[in-house]
Amino acid sequence: MNSQIERIKRMEKILDESKIVVENLNKAIEEYIHIQTNIKELQNYYENGGWMEDFKDDEAEKIPKDLKRGVLSEDSLYNFLSDCDEIRSKLRTI
């Protein structure tokens, strides 16, 4: 009887913790699905020459120095897009 109660308590704890994680994941996946159009726009910007043109103009100091332009750093956008690829890969393995 004691082991049964302990088992039920343990399963209840697992359920409670798992529900929170699954709810959070579900919200995150919904947000990720919603933002896909923007991510694809960033990917097209990076792959189809727009990024390179803007990067070169920034290097040539044609872009105002006070403009936020983290997207033009050499690694920021590439690393972000790589992270997105990794997430898609992980989701396929589930």
Describe the structure.
The chain is mostly helical. 78% of the residues lie in helices and 0% in strands. Helix 2 crosses helix 4. It is elongated and about 75 Å long.
Q: What low-confidence regions span 5 or more consecutive residues with pLDDT below 50?
A: none
* Sheet of most strands: none
Q: What is the H-and-E element order?
A: HHHH
The percent range for helix content is over 70%
Contiguous helical run count:
4
Question: What does the average pLDDT come to?
Answer: 95
Shape: elongated
> From the alpha-carbon coordinates, what is the Rg to the nearest angstrom?
22 Å
Number of strands: 0
Strand content: under 5%
Structural class: mainly alpha
How would you summarize the topology of this molecule?
Blueprint: H1 2-34, H2 36-47, H3 50-59, H4 76-93
Helix pairs in contact: 2-4
Brief description of this entry?
By secondary structure, the protein is an all-alpha fold. It is built from four helices and no strands.
Structural features:
mainly alpha; elongated; 94 residues; 0% strand; 4 helices
